[in-house]
UDP-4-amino-4, 6-dideoxy-N-acetyl-beta-L-altrosamine transaminase
Amino acid sequence: MDFIPYGRQWIDEEDISEVVKVLKGEFITQGKIVEKFEDALAEYCGAKYCVVFNSGTSALIGAYFSVGLTKGDIFITSPITFVATANAGLIWEAQVRFGDIEEDTGNLDPQEVKKLIDEKTKLIVPVHYAGHPVDLEKFRILADKYNLFLIEDACHALGGLYKHSKIGSAEYSDAVVFSFHPVKHITTGEGGAVLTNDYTIFKKLKLIRNHGITKNPSEFVLPSEGEWYYEQHYLGFNFRITDFQCALGVSQLRKLDKFVNLRRNIAKFYNEKFANNPYFYIPVEKKYAYHSYHLYPIRLKEKFLPYKREIFKKLRQNGLGVQVHYIPVYKQPYYRKIGFTDFYLPRAEKFYVSEISLPIFPSMDTKTAEEVVNRTFKVFQEIEKLLIF
Ligand SMILES: Cc1ncc(COP(=O)(O)O)c(C=O)c1O
């Protein structure tokens, strides 16, 4: 039986030839294509500035640095995310607080965030889980009221919209972070980006990406010692992405809207086939959201919760590359060790025990989508039979 992965990149001949062009040229790391990709992303999203990084994780670390997150600060994020969202703040020795989520979207609940804000809180990081935007206006109101920074972890949500605003426009936030890992909407192999409308944030992003070093004489704090001179102002990293990866990014970005449409068509097909089924809930799309369906997360109905392990195993045995997104971050041994020993958020826990992500990717044809539906129903029918006898 053919194995259907949960996600997969789509790279065509045009993408390959764009990468090869750069590889045959003189500059393969820091040539002109890095900026070309940044300009193209900024234009697509409608933000003033874009800085690309070598992963979504480094983009998050850079974004938190750019708003000054540091030791003694608290930041609030979702437990239903990849560990990188929280780790990126711990790197700066800030403390994380996890807020509970909305049951239906799996997104951080602004009401829960409000309860966690105190005088040490500096930053809120909502995650557009699965590609469904959070209710950004509500987070903006909180950020304004308590004078906090707001950074969107949009690693799942490139190509999505909040109301009429493109995810990535940073219309409601200080910065927006993307990942270009192969399962995401477009890929550069590994890669990430931060978009912002704030010049100070933009400048700090550029510094942190390159060891905290500036080569701009107008920024020197000491007298220049010659044309070779540069200064290090912060403890930074090598978070640079290469020109040939950005060539792939530029080429992929041209196809982004097509990719998102294809994802939405598959989601629509699943939604119709799975409507009102007795086994699981399907993803929602709120009025304010244009979902870009990085994932298609289903949630088991009450009766099936005790059988998740069995269901997951059977889906895999039937050739479906299902995944679980996510184990709540605070349950990780590392997080238990740093203070989340008996921590428990009821909706996040329920989400975790009920969630399974079905395969979805733009190159999936109708026949494959039908296969996913048929195999999924087959597994649930088998489990149901076991429950009856
Ligand atoms: C929500 C979220 N944040 C951050 C990341 C980190 O991105 P990357 O894998 O590009 O470092 C991911 C990647 O899976 C993610 O899903």
Remarks:
- The chain has two domains: 13-253, 257-388.
